[in-house]
Write a structure and sequence with these properties.
Blueprint: H1 7-15, H2 24-27, H3 51-63, H4 73-85, E1 89-93, H5 96-106, E2 114-117, H6 123-131, E3 135-138, E4 161-164, H7 176-186, E5 191-193, E6 201-202, E7 205-206, E8 213-217, E9 230-234, H8 237-247, H9 273-304, E10 310-312, E11 319-321, E12 326-331, H10 341-350, H11 366-372, H12 375-392, H13 396-404, E13 405-409, H14 417-432, H15 434-437
Parallel strand pairs: 2-3, 2-4, 5-8
Antiparallel strand pairs: 1-9, 6-7, 6-11, 8-9, 10-12, 12-13
Helix pairs in contact: 3-9, 4-9, 5-6, 5-8, 9-14
The structure holds pyridoxal-5'-phosphate (PLP).
């Protein structure tokens, strides 16, 4: 297996000592092989809720105004979220996918248009492009940061390219210093998929507010949560008008109550008043939770960097705040006696540390081929363009990232420092027992 080492860190870790085992379980036999697990307690539960959520929901319930056509709570949320994000406009939507759909329509992405996106993302980023019968063009990943590699964008540009859609994956930021000027020069709208990046910042400004539009998700797993929910933010009035109209069956933003008067086509992607109240209540917790995640993640990175073969995802220098929706690192099997990532994940889970291997390569999803060879796509794009797309749909760095990545979810970062110590302890234990770890590959 090809292993390009980073000389600086390599030199550093050889010198650094692995964290000393602090418990009996840490020095013993791997839990996956019958030993005592480092941890038995559950991880912090999610969502966190209490009186503000309860009161908000009850207020809406009793008011009888359950939707935004008669209620005012969605509007109140939009104002609060726009202000928090430093954007002029916010349009709340049914979910993050809807926010992205509204964005696609607001910047007029249509059949045959090409949209640049990273392959290391949730499927929705691609699906919203396919819904427009447009062509997703995958920009390979930066192995160190897990984000879209800005150096790979230019080579993929064609006269049909109509938008650039970076994702702030895991709550860390894509390299906006490189991507924003590039989009401006080419006259491409830049849509930020910030669905995982609530409160993340690029040079002190909230991500989502720097491109032409930014999209957020409030789905149950996200750092800001109303079960389902989403928002599009922008400071561009035309985009705000178009996105609003699209999300409300073509009704204009300025006359939202105008019954049967329309300015465009659209769909119904509206958020309910209940969700708006939940979000307003959850927002009172967001800053403290984010600070706690940040503190724990920084601690974890410090400790994990001392373990050979564990490489925490790097942040771009411009990323002045990480939302830590995911804690991501890469696993180097060579430093673990050649044991596979699958064995490592199994061992780590058995130690009581919840983990996963994250995404599989999105650009290789078999259903893409089904979509592209459909009657509609062949009519719009023709076989020559589809052939060209297939030829350039290669993301070798991302393929490697998908094989090496290990994820922890955001809720784990809401634990204590002692919880973080257990994560480190478990990984150090697995490394000490890496000869045994290979048995899990048998
Ligand atoms: C969650 C997510 C979405 C979709 O949001 P939903 O609210 O689930 O529709 C889109 N992109 C990314 C990167 C996400 O993580």
């Amino acid at each position: 297996m090809m292993m390009m080492q980073q000389p600086t860190r390599r030199a550093f870790v050889t010198a650094a000592a692995t964290a000393a085992p602090i418990s009996a379980a840490a020095s013993g036999k791997l839990a996956a092989l019958g030993g005592t697990p480092v941890r038995r307690e559950p991880w912090p539960s999610w969502p966190v809720q209490g009186a503000p959520e309860e009161e908000g929901i009850l207020k809406v319930l009793k008011s009888g105004h359950w939707g935004r056509t008669t209620g005012r709570r969605v509007e109140a949320f939009e104002q609060a979220y726009a202000q928090l994000m430093g954007a002029r406009y916010c349009i709340a939507t049914a979910n993050g996918t809807s926010a992205l759909i509204a964005a696609m329509n607001a910047v007029d992405i249509g059949p045959g248009d090409e949209v640049l996106l990273p392959p290391y993302t949730f499927v929705a980023t691609m699906n919203v492009i396919l819904l427009q019968r447009a062509l997703p063009v995958f920009v390979d990943s930066d192995l160190e940061t897990c984000q879209m590699d800005p150096r790979k964008v230019e080579a993929l540009a064609t006269p049909a390219t109509r938008a650039l859609m970076p994702v702030h994956l895991g709550g860390s930021a894509a390299d906006l210093d490189a991507l924003l000027p590039l989009a401006r020069r080419r006259n491409w709208p830049l849509i930020e998929d910030a669905c995982q990046a609530h409160l993340a910042e690029w040079r002190g400004k909230k991500v989502g507010s720097l491109g032409d539009a930014g999209c957020f998700s409030f789905q149950a797993s996200k750092n800001l949560n109303s079960g389902e929910g989403g928002a599009l933010i922008t400071s561009n009035e035309e985009i705000a008008d178009r996105a609003f109209a699209f999300h409300s069956n073509g009704r204009s933003r300025k006359a939202a109550q105008a019954g049967f008067s329309y300015v465009s086509n659209g769909a119904n992607l509206r958020l309910t008043e209940f969700q708006a109240e939940l979000l307003l209540a959850q927002m009172t917790r967001l800053e403290d939770q984010s600070k706690l995640r940040d503190r724990n993640a920084a601690y974890l990175t410090r400790k994990l960097s001392d373990i050979p073969g564990i490489r925490p995802a790097r942040m771009y220098p411009g990323c002045t705040r990480n939302a830590w929706h995911l804690y991501m690192f890469r696993y180097d099997s060579q430093a673990f006696s050649g044991a596979s990532r699958r064995a490592f994940l199994k061992a780590l889970s058995a130690e009581g540390i919840a983990c996963s291997g994250g995404y599989t390569p999105l650009n290789k999803e078999p259903f893409i081929e089904k979509v592209l060879s459909s009657r509609h796509y062949r009519k719009v794009l023709g076989d020559t363009r589809l052939k060209q797309w297939r030829e350039k749909n290669e993301c070798p760095v991302n393929d490697r990232l998908c094989q090496e990545a290990v994820w922890f979810v955001q809720t784990m970062l809401l634990g204590s420092q002692a919880d973080m110590d257990q994560i480190v302890e478990a990984i150090a234990k697995i490394r000490e027992n890496s000869q045994d770890l290979r048995k899990l590959d048998a």
